[in-house]
Amino acid sequence: MTLSTSLRPRRGRHSGAARTDRLIQWGTWLLVVVLIFGPIVPVVYAGFVDRPLYESGGVLTLDNFGALGEDPAFWSALRNTALFALMAAVPGVLIGAGLAVLVARTDLPMQRFFGVVLVAPLLFPGLGVTLGWVTMYSPSGFVSTWVAEHFGSTPWNLYSLPGMAIVTLEKSVPLVYLMVRARLSSLDTSIESAALTAGARPLRVLWTITLPMLRPALLTAAILIVMIAFETLGLPLILGGPVDIDTLSTYLYRTWTTDPARQGTVSAAASGLLLLVTILLWLRTRVEGDASRYATAAGKATATRRLHLGPLRWPLAILISSYVVVAIVLPVVGLVMTSVTYIFTPAVSPWDVLTSRHFETVFTNDSLFRSITNSLLIGVVGSVLATTGLATAALVAHRSRFRLRSTLTPILFYPRALPGIVVGVGIFWSFVLLTPLEPLRTTVWGIMLAFIVRNTAIGYAAIQSSLLAISTELDAAARTSGATWFKTCRTIVVPLLRPALAGSLILMFVSILNDYDPAVFLVTTGNEVLGVTMLKQWAAGFAGPVAALGIIQIAITAFAVTIGRLAWGVKLHA
Amino acid sequence: MPEINVSALGLDYAAKTAIDDISFTAREGEFLTLLGPSGCGKTTTLMSIAGLVQPTRGSITCGADVLFDSQRSIDRPPERRNCGVVFQSYAIWPHMSVADNVAYPLRLRKVGKAEIAKRVQEALAMVELAALAERYPHQLSGGQQQRVALARAITYGPGVLLLDEPLSNLDAKLREQARIWLKEFQTSVGLTTIFVTHDQDEALALSDRVIVMNDGHIEQVGTPEEIYQRPASPFVASFLGSANLLAGTVLGTAGGLTQVRLQDSGQTVSVGADSLAGDVLVMIRPEDVELFSDTNAADHATLQGTLASRTFVGSSYRYIIDCGGQKLSVASRERWEPGPVRLRFAPERARLFPHASATAVPTLTEELSHA
């Protein structure tokens, strides 16, 4: 009988192992706290002292806030940002929600096609897309010029607050679309069938039953867009810059770069921005919590009953198709054409001015080429480091008895409220002030750190949702079999988590590749990254090479996503 | 095999006491069952022994080993408790073959390759799965998965076997077979076993002793026969099988019998002698009540009632008899028609409880009328 010899776990080795477990758990927690709150400290602190951080003997004061209050430029930036946020949020929510309902709940033609195309912009690099809009719809853009030639004038102006809001739709519509679709899939279609049988016509059902049920999702989406409007930097810099329209983030950026004497004031403004976005995040989390409480019982997946649009079917399909062409296809076409022509205008046939010069420039100019290799380098290294760290953090948060485990998830989600520009400045100051870290300041690794910090929530969400779906009894069984916490994680949980880890790897790679706001203060010669190079080249008037870089960025992103899908079946935004 | 000693174990959550200072001992080689409704604390107790839940108070020992002691701040991590645990979901690791699942605890203990192969083979043979060693969990049926979990839990010779509702995921037919198999298995390995279930039939069929739990505390400890035949509380009486609970008042005790006057109808019944006085509940199981026709049994069946409803349940009929306001459930193989009837039960089959103890227990007839 096998049981006659009992194999006891060895005592000495195991108590050592338990110490290792605790070390890993504390180490992970400290690392997360330092990385995420570290960069905020100098920014907030600088707002409350009377002299720049690098001068010693600072005295705590509120003067900076007073000075800020007396700066009319600050108030106008704040007003602009609020208007911009409003103009972006309202149409963004209406269009995104409308599309989601039509695609998910009605017999609209070409649903599968729309389902894919509508979310595609989420994978486009934000800066590239903005430039694509400029090439098409700015006063000298292709479409604008064509319209002006045929109708005398263009009824829109991209270099304005409404213009900025319209370009924001590119990213906000797919976000709203996804959030509303997720909410719709948790609502049983029988609530709509019930209204139909009560005698309501399909459109009335959508208006009186479906839309009200979506209210929490719409509110969350609106808050999300407002948050984006408050923190985005590249878009207002490109579209507002030429006409001197400042938003909060460009106000911070300009003052920081041009007026070193006013660092205290700007830091005060940055703290204010941080507080505001934090409140928005808190609001959003609250609304989301409410939303889940009001979810209808998610019963068995019954076949979705689709509402009949009747004669409106094709007109609506055509309307949506034109949206896809105008807002998604044309900007990309504009970017592509700008990258392969000397000049992209309706006055000249593009075929006559074709050139590969811009790509040649990109590959021969040291600084431009370096920005590609640097971005790839930090993308690969950063995604691996971030995924390792985030996976460990998720295991500590959800699979350990570590005392502070419940604080990890909110901390890792908090960077959603960190404006990129604030992270960038914070990391810059941390490197300046902490002498041992100073050498990092001018390397790509500092930028990588900033990008990782800003995007933790994306990778963490991917890992966490899968981790929560793995039964805790699987690790309990390993623990009672004699495995330590770390051994259990390594041999049981991580292997089961592999698809989610691949997903996090791809998402983090794409995010790091396409991010740029936090790097604007960290870039010098040698550590250029794609986004910042594009921003600077654009400001210097080199549209062609910038477009070429944008195309390369899109190509790398598409390549990474395809690899993920083929190799690991990673589904992004599923 | 060591014995498991749980002493004054308590666990408080923020708003609720999950385990209310319970004590019990699982003797060497014993099959001990924790039985109770969901939320009674039975699984929490089991997981406290395994080290997966951290109790607030008390102590747990396994032989001479202290696994947990709140006063001495001892809380051995689960990996050093040497318990074999079978979880409700079986928790077979889906990315490992059957053999790898069973070998995992042995690899952790740095057992040699040949020894691992031998032990895995033996353990799988014991659960009659030797042929399926190379299969993966998704290729196994529920019953086979359950046996893999058992094999995995015993290969390394644990001090105690902890089973958390291992039969509840099997369908009814399979469950009955698995029950017999599990009993034989436990007897042959001779491991001290603590078994958690909410199923009274399983508890009665498998256990050497049963601990009935309710709301975090122990209602009764005893052999299956004891807890079924002499329940210590109305809760135990109704949780194990069906029980009628009739309100009444003790009139007095004489000649080895206690006379109780039933509420409402005022009729008197005799039960086995008891020291209780005042307001009581008379517990009698439906199968212990005999029915007689109203006309010809007045001398030996003194209790009168009206047959209110009849339900055919296959092996017998279930009747609801109205005894002047109090409803009584009766099981009988004979078919009776609605109308006046007489009832009788042997005094030693009935039990008395103080009336106050009945508050939380739904009456049997209420349950029946809901069904």
TrEMBL record, chain A:
It is found in: Cell inner membrane; Cell membrane. Coiled coil: none annotated. GO terms for cellular component: plasma membrane. The chain crosses the membrane at residues 29-48, 82-104, 116-136, 156-180, 217-241, 261-283, 316-344, 376-397, 417-437, 443-470, 491-513, 542-568. CDD domains: TM_PBP2. It comes from the Bacteria. Keywords: Cell inner membrane, Cell membrane, Membrane, Transmembrane, Transmembrane helix, Transport. GO terms for biological process: transmembrane transport. InterPro entries: MetI-like, MetI-like_sf. Its main location: membrane. The keyword Transmembrane helix applies. It is a multi-pass membrane protein. Residues 78-284, 372-564 form the ABC transmembrane type-1 domain. Belongs to the binding-protein-dependent transport system permease family. This is Iron(III) transport system permease protein. It comes from Thermomonospora echinospora.
TrEMBL record, chain B:
GO terms for molecular function: ABC-type quaternary ammonium compound transporting activity; ATP binding; ATP hydrolysis activity. InterPro entries: AAA+_ATPase (IPR003593), ABC_SmlMolc_Importer (IPR050093), ABC_transporter-like_ATP-bd (IPR003439), ABC_transporter-like_CS (IPR017871), Mo/tungstate-bd_C_term_dom (IPR008995), P-loop_NTPase (IPR027417), Transp-assoc_OB_typ2 (IPR013611). Keywords: ATP-binding, Nucleotide-binding, Transport. Coiled coil: none annotated. PROSITE patterns: ABC_TRANSPORTER_1 (PS00211), ABC_TRANSPORTER_2 (PS50893). One of its GO terms (cellular component) is ATP-binding cassette (ABC) transporter complex. Its EC number is 7.6.2.9. It comes from Thermomonospora echinospora. This is ABC-type quaternary amine transporter. Residues 1-240 form the ABC transporter domain.
